[in-house]
Amino acid sequence: MADKRIEWTQQQRRVIDARGGDVLVTASAGTGKTAVLSGRCVSIVSDKSLCPDIRNVLVLTFTEAAAEQMRSRIAERLKEAFLETRDPHLRRQLMLLQGADISTIHAFCKRLITEYFYKLDLDPTFGVIDGDEQKLLKSEVLERTIDRAWEQEDLRTALEQLFRRRDLRAHGGFPSQIVQLSDFLDGIISRDSWCERAAALAQAANPFTTDLGQKQKQIVANKLRHILAQIQYAIRLYENENAGGDWAAKWRQTFVRPVGEYIELISSGDWEGFSRRIKDYQRPRFEYKPRGMSGLAAETIRNLAESARKSFDGLFDLAILNPDYVDRLGGSVSLQTAVLVELVKTFDRLYAQAKRTINCLDFADLEHYALRLLTDPTVSDDAPRPSQTALTLRQRYRHIFVDEYQDINSVQQAILEMLSPGGNTLGVGDIKQSIYAFRGAEPDIFLEQLNRVSADPANARDGLRVDLNANFRSAKGILDFVNKIFSRIMTVSSCRIDYDESAQLKPAPLDGGPPALERSPDAVELHILDEAGAKEDGSEDEPPGESDDLMNLSVVNARQRQAALIARRIRQMVGADGQEAEFQVLDKQSGALRNVQYRDIVILMRSLAKKANDYVEIFRL
Q1: d(CA 586, CA 596)
Q2: What's the pTM value of the predicted model, to 2 decimals?
Q3: Rounded distance, CA 233 to CA 305, Å?
Q4: Which of 174-178, 315-319, 357-361, 514-518 has the least mean pLDDT?
Q5: Sequential DSSP letters for 362-415
Q6: Beta-bridge partner residues of 361
Q7: Which pairing describes strands 464-468 and 23-27: parallel, antiparallel, or unpaired?
Q8: How large is the greatest C-alpha to C-alpha distance in the chain, in angstroms?
Q9: Helical (H) or strand (E) element with 327
Q10: C-alpha dihedral over 133, 138, 144, 149, to 10 degrees?
Q11: Close Cβ partners of 320 (under 8 Å, ≥ 6 residues apart)
């Protein structure tokens, strides 16, 4: 088999060997996700009864680079397996690998549309518009949309209300919200259904009695839970320093107790009782910072308490908590909502016409056309069924692999559901690495899938969950530090997951070779520069005693001082001043330990803007 040269962990082996059902994998950074994906793929392809041809495998990644890396890893594993067994079946799979469907989901959708263009009434020579062209085209279409709306007599009054006292700049003003709303709808399975529901909601006499109103009530409950979690954490911090102190007792009595009661009322379905109670809430004078405490702990407690109180006060601005809203503003808001929906529909129609004129599709079109191709048009969007095309493709793709599952959207999920009959999909993701919500990613889809499956192989009827948390990238000290921080700040109330035992990173077991990092137990260092004396221009007077230990400069700005400290620390690590290097690293080429060198060190920043030049200037000295 292809994986005999690799010492897989128990979790990795479970992913590779699982058969007969869907597998959902949570894979934290550095846990060998790509190796496991390629290992499972080769393991399946090696079994003719499971997969007679590698072209029966569909691998979907998030980026083109990831797709090429996956193809390369699979080729490497296939080659190793063939050299070990001399199986002609494996040699044939290696030769066919370039024809396998390993790509981003957009590239896959484009191939699908090109193959079945005649079923979609599309010109097969269509192009895909890039981001800059798309922005320019949408800007032009937005102007035409608004001009056309003003020409319609029946919309003029509503438009005047909608645009009154709003910023009407072409870029960044209120009209740009039309484009943003259209972009949001790119991730919705049916734009028409969404617009119909929005229009119906706008016409409702009391929108808070609708399904959307119920969801808004749930949002209020979730906000209250988050507020409660914040203040309870502040209280725990306080009691660690002042057990039995009166600050905690006051907050419990005047804030924690009523907020807890509000949550109970909403949970029991007594919204009227909750509304009455919160309206009558008497806001006492709060003391945010505990008396007799100072330093970082006191400041953290103050920030948490103040944030909780501000979030609580913000609830009173919500329309759903203002009983006079429907009578005083309901009619006006209803009219403005209706005309906004019409503007979005007009924009979508004109944008589609503009794309047809230049024979182009955008990335959202690729997804929606692919979904249309895969869905039976005779059934409703609420209960979609696979089309004949989808059933044909199910015969082609016997095994589906999805990388970066946490960044999927609802349209992409629907495409997967049409392609898979169930029991043949491997999804790999990490909710902690979800950063593309602004592009329409819906991490809740991954969470819902995880809740559906079981971590117990004996009870995995609906699918198997495997948590990869053995980390091959970092030393134990670093992992311990990360676990300690994340276990405190990552909770269901704050980020929809608990950083529990299944999520915590563990150092990968050694296979008898030297550890990747040999150094002192202090794997994480925290250096704090006191910039209290910084001037308004960003510079600061040199603190006493630091003159040229750092740079021999009398005045430097804060970034340069940080760069100087880092430069000095790096010199100490590599022993640049005639001393021995502080630790050794494993050289991948020789397989032996060697002293750490400059090339082994990386400096990470949130942004290079306005920072890189300062660092380069200091590092050159």
Answers
A1: 9
A2: 0.81
A3: 9
A4: 514-518
A5: -HHHHHHHHHHHHB-TTS-TTS--B-HHHHHHHHH-SEEEESSGGG--HHHHHH
A6: 128
A7: parallel
A8: 83
A9: helix 325-357
A10: 170
A11: 208, 213, 216, 217, 220
